[in-house]
Amino acid sequence: MAGRHPHPHHHLLVGAVLIFTIAGVSSSVSGCDSCVHQTKVSYFSNASALLSGACGYGSMAVGLYDGGRIAAAAPAIFKDGAGCGACYQMSCKDTSMCKKEGTTVMVTDLNTNNQTHFVISSRAFMAMAKQGNERNLLKLGILEVDYKRWGSRQVGPL
């Protein structure tokens, strides 16, 4: 088969396959902003962790969004800092303990633990609870949640 030339349009086919492959991988990693996703979420047990976020907000982070409802997000959501200031609505899937409307958080930090996509402030974590269940929710430590991108507010890294 030496000397055989590929089909003249072979390079176009290879290029098209490559473009669709890259587009598919890109969309599966970034996902759909308006789509509801499922993950697990935990909370910051130490308030000082809130002040050292990777977005550079420092002590301003607590005052930036809804009384300190802030979050550290997994690398796929944090996007090398491009995710700083993005807001997400999340609701706990345990309807016996959690309110249907859930809570909203703003990304202020990078979450490098592999157990959850978000680590949120205890204030945001408890905001998902039905009245009287706040402490019981904290005792669980990790919750299964539905989440999606919320609103268009985005502060960006400092």
TrEMBL record:
Keywords: Signal
Example of a GO cellular component annotation carried by this entry: plasmodesma
PROSITE patterns, alphabetized: EXPANSIN_EG45, PROKAR_LIPOPROTEIN
Domain Expansin-like EG45, residue spans: 52-157
InterPro entries xrefs: Expan_Lol_pI, Expansin/allergen_DPBB_dom, RlpA-like_DPBB, RlpA-like_sf
Superkingdom, natural source: Eukaryota
Residue ranges of coiled coil: none
Presence of keyword Signal: yes
Pfam families cross-referenced by the UniProt entry: DPBB_1 (PF03330)
Keyword Translocase annotated: no
Signal peptide range: 1-27
PANTHER family in UniProt: EXPANSIN-B3 (PTHR31692), EXPANSIN-LIKE A1-RELATED (PTHR31692:SF4)
Name of this chain's protein: Expansin-like EG45 domain-containing protein
Organism: Cuscuta epithymum
